[in-house]
Amino acid sequence: MKKILFITSLLSILLFSFQVNATASTNSREVYEKTGRVIWEVNTKEKLVALTFDDGPHPVFTSQILDILAKHDAKATFFVAGNKVVRFPDLLKREVREGHEIANHTFHHTYGNITSAKLSSELEETDKMINQFTGLKPSLYRPVGGFYNDVIINTALKNGKTVVLWSWGQDSRDWADPPVNQMCSYIKNGIKPGNIILFHDWHGSEYTQTCSTVKALDNILDFLDKNEYKSVTVSELLSRSTQLIPESFGIYPSKKGRTSHIDLIF
Ligand SMILES: [Zn+2]
User: Fold this and answer.
1) What CA–CA distance (Å, rounded) separates 197 from 190?
2) What is the mean pLDDT of residues 24-42?
3) Rounded to whole angstroms, how far apart are CA atoms 187 and 169?
4) How far apart are CA 175 and CA 82, in angstroms?
5) At what angle are helices 89-97 and 61-71 packed, to 10 degrees?
6) What is the pLDDT of residue 127?
7) What radius of gyration do the chain's Cα atoms show?
8) Distance from the CA of 81 to the center of ligand 1, in angstroms?
9) What's the gap in Å between 182 CA and the centre of ligand 1?
10) Could you tell me which of 63, 136, 128, 140 has the C-alpha nearest to residue 94?
11) Is the distance from CB of 167 to CB of 195 less than 8 angstroms?
12) In the prediction, which pLDDT does 29 show?
């Protein structure tokens, strides 16, 4: 009896801790990263990186990006917006046909704070569109603008998504249309195994005719080829990681006894 009481009390304490944690204010990267469901980059010694393209498909630039990726036999992940998918479904189908990964970037690309109900409907609506045109259901989601809080992350997890951000040193800032040489050197100088690199395939409006990403991509992929880096999808990168938390990158002090990526998934 005493044993049962003890176990019941222990369970209550654990449940209480979980509830406190679940309602706490926005956690740090370290706390989220430990769950294995929020990813900035992965720890691997293999020369693997994941190129990611947000906000498309775009009627001009997405196909140009796909041509460059094909030339280098590189695979990428496209974080698509549902409202663009509806308009350009053939580009989505081409992405899938050519071996790239499709991920969810909400339907309306709404920035900032969002209620749990609204985010759930954005994710569901986008999944539905992707499924309708490809038969696939994406497992990855990237918050718009990289903005996240506990509501956003917990809602994404409830919807079965892994939240994918990007390596802190690998934001191309291509949306600001930087000089191409500057963008290329920034990405190339920071490359490390396990990086998740942020690009956008939607630039300006659908009538915009120039795109820094298209101009820079061939050069960046040449560099990756020459240095024997392989570009893989985010899901493949995750499946080949040896440990989730990139302690070797010195973002925060390493700790002993960390659990592996697989063990940490809840
Ligand atoms: Zn976006």
Assistant:
1) 10
2) 83
3) 8
4) 19
5) 10
6) 98
7) 20
8) 8
9) 22
10) 63
11) yes
12) 87
Active site residues: 54, 200
Going from the Cα of 251 to the center of ligand 1, the distance in angstroms, rounded, reads: 25
Please tell me the distance from the alpha carbon of residue 43 to that of residue 39, in angstroms, as a whole number: 11
Cα of 31 vs centre of ligand 1, distance in Å, is 24
Q: Residues with Cβ within 5 Å of ion ligand 1?
A: 54-55, 144
Instruction: Tell me which amino acid residue 260 is.
Output: S
Single pTM value for the model: 0.82
What b/e sequence results for 189-221 when a residue is b if at least 16 CB atoms lie within 10 Å of its CB, and e otherwise? Answer: eebbbbbbbbbbbbbeeeeeeebbbbbbbebbb
pLDDT in tens, 133-150: 999 999 999 999 999 999
Measured on CA atoms in the order 221, 165, 239, 248, is the torsion positive or negative?
positive
CA atoms within 13 A on the CB side of 234: 29
Q: Which domains are seen in the chain, by residue range?
A: 29-239 (3.20.20.370)
Cα dihedral angle (72, 73, 74, 77), rounded to 10 degrees?
130
Give the Cβ contact number of residue 7 at 10 Å: 10
At 47, the pLDDT band (50, 70, 90 cuts) reads very high
Q: Are the CB atoms for 105 and 81 separated by under 8 Å? A: yes
- Which tokens sit at 99? 């071996």
Judged by DSSP in three states, 163 sits in strand
Structure-token pair, residue 138: 């994406």
